[in-house]
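BUG: 3D viewer hangs when loading the predicted structure for this chain

Environment: internal workstation, default settings.
Expected: structure renders.
Actual: progress bar stalls at 90%.

Input used:
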Amino acid sequence: MSPQEQAQKSERKVKEPAGGPGVDAPEPTVEQGTPAPEPARDPLADVLQRVQTAYTAYIEAEREVARTYKVNEQRVEREYKQAEQQANDTCNEAIKQATKDHEVAERQAEVAYQKAREQAETAYKNAREQAREPYEIQMRQALDARAKTIEEAWKAREETLESSWKIFTKEAK
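Structure tokens produced before the viewer hung:
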């Protein structure tokens, strides 16, 4: 039986007279001018009265426990909400910090990339310049050799033609 059902049952019992349901309790009568005689005490009625009082106290204690439970439940719910909010706030702060750290790391990586790129470009230019010098030397040598070879060939041609002309002109005479 639930605590609410027990409370309703106890309220009905408290409202019922000591003799039980449907039995009217004798009403004491007081005559005018004479003190009311002490009603005769019925030991069973006393016991029933004490039981009824104890049961009423029990129901009231049960209600107090229910109220206390409800208050405690509300307190625990508030504490849970506060802990949840604190966890959310801590999480959000950690995410913000991680985002900041990530952005700083990305900027540092970009700076390192640019620096490495500049160094690579400088190294490329230097290597290109170093490669150009032997190329130019070889090209000059090749051009000089060609010019010398052509000049020598021209001289040889000239000499051969002159010699042939001399032979031709001597024979023609």
